[in-house]
Write a structure and sequence with these properties.
Layout lengths: L2 H19 L4 H17 L8 H28 L12 E4 L4 E2 L4 E5 L2 E7 L6 E2 L4 E8 L2 E4 L1
Helix pairs in contact: 1-2, 2-3
Length: 145
């Protein structure tokens, strides 16, 4: 198997893993770097036996793709909708020690514990086990009522 075919196959596998298997966007950049390396070898800029130059081309092209695409892809993935806005309107249960206005507490939502504060329209205090509704998400803290 020629080196350009090996780089092409490596790039295809990495892109497939990104698309179907592993979350995140990191494999995309190195997959594109492998494809670029295959093209560079195929057009003759690097010899098929020059493995050091192939490695350097792979590293440099992966870095270039990362610099050019990282922010654009991150913005595209997040989109205009605030992150985790799908939580708003869902139910949660107040955790240990309850919730008191002005203090941060814990709620249980979808099998996990979340930091929480009382929404302005909520009661001044809620006891442990109370069912609440998530009204907003700011960073890693939810507002509940």
């Amino acid at each position: 198997m020629t080196p350009s075919i090996m780089w092409l196959a490596t790039g295809a596998i990495l892109l497939a893993l990104e698309a179907f298997g592993l979350p995140g966007i990191g494999l995309l950049f190195i997959g594109l770097g492998a494809l670029a390396t295959a093209i560079i070898i195929e057009i003759g800029m690097i010899g098929g036996e020059d493995y050091i130059s192939q490695g350097a081309a792979f590293f440099i092209s992966s870095a270039v793709f990362t610099v050019l695409l990282w922010k654009r892809l991150k913005a595209w993935r997040i989109g205009k909708e605030p992150a985790y806005s799908n939580m708003v309107g869902d139910s949660a249960t107040v955790g240990k020690d309850g919730l008191t206005r002005g203090k941060e507490g814990i709620v249980h939502w979808s099998g996990t514990q979340m930091r929480a504060v009382l929404a302005p329209e909520a009661a001044d205090a809620l006891s442990e086990g109370a069912h609440v509704t998530i009204t907003a998400v700011k960073g890693n803290v939810v507002s509940v009522k």
